[in-house]
């Protein structure tokens, strides 16, 4: 009986883990939206590698997303750029990419 309960608990944990992976958190959605905005501005979006991403909550209506992206420039050299997006109640915007 105990073995069946443990097996049921194990299967339940696996299902919950799988569901969590299928439904991204609000933070993940926010970072993905910011990455989309950055990709639109890059010369070679297919070469983009994002890193150092973090979310700064300013207040309940405003959050800033900061990070870095390595991508190829027009000459094929890999260049690191820093970016910042801002999420407000009216949408998500790319604030800077340098």
Q: What would your notes on this structure say?
A:
With 98 residues, this protein is α+β, with helices and mostly antiparallel strands. It has one domain (25-97). Helix content is 38%, strand content 38%. The chain is built from two helices and four strands, in the order ααββββ. The protein has helices at residues 2-22, 26-41; strands spanning 49-57, 63-72, 78-88, 91-97. It has a four-stranded antiparallel beta sheet, covered by helices on one side. Strand 2 and strand 3 form a beta hairpin.
SSE run: HHEEEE
Rounded radius of gyration (Å)? 19 Å
pLDDT average, as an integer? 84
Q: What best-fitting shape do the alpha-carbon axes yield?
A: elongated
Number of strands: 4
Strand content: 35-45%
Helix content: 25-40%
Q: Low-confidence stretches at least 5 residues in length (pLDDT < 50)?
A: 5-19
Structural class: alpha+beta
Number of domains: 1
**How far apart are the first and last residues' alpha carbons, in Å?**
62 Å
Q: Biggest sheet: strands, sense, closure? A: 4 strands, antiparallel
Strand order of the largest sheet: 1-2-3-4
State the helix count.
2
């Amino acid at each position: 009986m105990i073995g069946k309960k443990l097996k049921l608990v194990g299967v339940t944990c696996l299902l919950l883990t799988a569901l969590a992976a299928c439904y991204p958190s609000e933070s993940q959605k926010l970072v993905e939206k910011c990455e989309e905005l950055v990709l639109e501005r890059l010369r070679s979006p297919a070469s983009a590698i994002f890193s150092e991403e973090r979310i700064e909550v300013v207040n309940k209506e405003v959050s800033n997303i900061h990070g870095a992206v390595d991508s190829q420039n027009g000459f094929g050299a890999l260049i690191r750029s820093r970016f910042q997006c801002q999420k407000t109640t009216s949408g998500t915007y790319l604030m800077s990419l340098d």
